[in-house]
């Protein structure tokens, strides 16, 4: 289990049922602290979490008086996290769809690259509902138009690490992005502000009702909300073309620097390993280099 003073897990929850406590327990095994935002639940699922928080120092709970939507609940958690001194938050669904085992990996990428938005790229199981799989392809295409190219591999997969102050700057004052339109709008607006997206593969689960799976997505209402959001972003990007193109050039340069740094570190690791082998075997550096070269290219031939 990892404990951080800068990165926190935030889980919005609305009528998640008995599975909520199990998911929170899994999260705490891999990362602390965690903040659960109860978004006006009426099923009593918050009681078990409040009891757990009494014995788990790394867990805190906020209870909102009425249901405001996934985005509004996460933003409430984001404000609370900033007030407590945290700089980044990993957003995670409370119903068990997202992989708790991947939390530390995502957090580490964020800690190494704090000025980025670390996005999950979903690895879908065989039981993914076809309508969800095909429907999100539309969102992927529309978000590419809003970014004038690739960058956000999946705008609807909510397992991601946000830099909190930039998030609150771009979305906090607005009225939109408060329900299921939050994931896509937050990602696009952060990218518009210059935050570079980093996409990392992560599995997603689709649980049946028998397994405790819960979905509050209303296909008509929430798809209309998503449609309005996409239309608004596509209209707005027309006035943002120069700055978006500038940010894309900056992202490309940053990516090139990151790849160059990775190559240098890989070479350094190789050289350190070579020296270590010299010390352990008692050979000279020239002899070790000769052996290393021979293993890759075959023995030298004399003429």
Descriptive notes:
By secondary structure, the chain is of the alpha/beta class. It folds into two domains: 2-239, Alpha-Beta Complex (Spore Coat Polysaccharide Biosynthesis Protein SpsA, Chain A), CATH 3.90.550; 246-297. Helices cover 51% and strands 16% of the residues. It has helices at 19-30, 46-55, 70-83, 103-112, 130-147, 164-171, 182-192, 219-237, 241-281, 285-297, and strands at 2-3, 7-13, 31-32, 34-39, 59-64, 88-91, 116-123, 160-163, 196-203. The chain has a seven-stranded mixed β-sheet with strand order 5-4-2-6-8-7-9, with helices on both faces. β4 (34-39), α2 and β5 (59-64) form a beta-alpha-beta unit. The protein is globular. The model has no long low-confidence stretch (mean pLDDT 88).
- CATH architecture classification of the largest domain: Alpha-Beta Complex
Q: Estimate the strand proportion.
A: 15-25%
What would CATH call the class of the largest domain?
Answer: Alpha Beta
**Residue windows where pLDDT falls under 50 for at least 5 positions:** none
Order of helices and strands: EEHEEHEHEHEHEHHEHHH
| Tally of domains | 2
Overall pLDDT metric: 88
CATH topology of the largest domain: Spore Coat Polysaccharide Biosynthesis Protein SpsA, Chain A
Report on the biggest sheet.
7 strands, mixed
Structural class, by secondary structure, is alpha/beta
What is the CA–CA distance across the termini? Answer: 60 Å
Strands of the widest sheet, in order across it, are 5-4-2-6-8-7-9
Fourth CATH level, the homologous superfamily of the largest domain: Spore Coat Polysaccharide Biosynthesis Protein SpsA, Chain A
Rg estimate, integer Å: 23 Å
Number of strands: 9
Could you say which overall geometry the principal axes of the C-alpha atoms support? globular
Q: What's the helix count?
A: 10
Helix residue percentage: 40-55%
């Amino acid at each position: 289990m990892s404990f951080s003073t800068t990165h926190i897990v935030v889980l919005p929850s609305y009528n998640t049922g008995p599975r909520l406590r199990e998911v929170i327990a899994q999260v705490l095994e891999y990362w602390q602290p965690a903040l659960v935002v109860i978004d006006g639940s009426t099923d009593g699922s918050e009681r078990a979490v409040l009891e757990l928080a009494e014995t788990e120092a790394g867990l805190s709970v906020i209870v909102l008086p009425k249901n405001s939507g996934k985005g509004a609940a996460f933003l409430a958690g984001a404000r609370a996290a900033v007030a407590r001194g945290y700089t980044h938050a990993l957003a995670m669904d409370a119903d068990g769809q997202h992989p708790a085992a991947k939390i530390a990996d995502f957090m580490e990428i964020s800690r190494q690259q704090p000025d980025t938005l670390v996005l999950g790229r979903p690895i879908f199981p065989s039981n993914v509902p076809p309508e969800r799989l095909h429907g999100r392809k539309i969102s992927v295409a529309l978000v590419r138009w809003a970014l004038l190219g690739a960058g956000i591999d999946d705008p609807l997969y909510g397992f991601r690490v946000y830099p909190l102050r930039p998030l609150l700057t771009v979305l906090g004052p607005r009225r939109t992005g408060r329900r299921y339109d939050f994931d896509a709008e937050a990602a696009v607006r952060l990218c518009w502000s210059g935050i570079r997206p980093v996409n990392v593969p992560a599995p997603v689960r689709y649980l049946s009702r028998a397994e405790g799976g819960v979905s509050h997505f209303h296909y008509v209402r929430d798809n209309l909300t998503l449609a309005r959001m996409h239309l608004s972003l596509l209209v707005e990007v027309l006035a943002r073309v120069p700055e978006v193109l500038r940010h894309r050039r900056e992202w490309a340069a940053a990516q090139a620097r990151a790849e160059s740094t990775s190559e240098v570190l890989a070479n350094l690791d190789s050289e350190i390993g070579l020296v270590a082998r010299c010390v352990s075997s008692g050979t000279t550096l020239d002899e070790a280099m000769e052996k290393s070269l021979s293993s890759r290219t075959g023995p030298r031939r004399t003429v």
